[in-house]
Amino acid sequence: MRPNSLVCDKAYDTENIITIINEEINAFDIIPNKTNIKTGYFRKRSRYVFRKPIHNRRNNVESVFSVIKDISVELTQAEALNS
Question: Which among 11, 49, 51, 82 has the fewest CB atoms less than 10 Å away?
Answer without folding.
Answer: 82
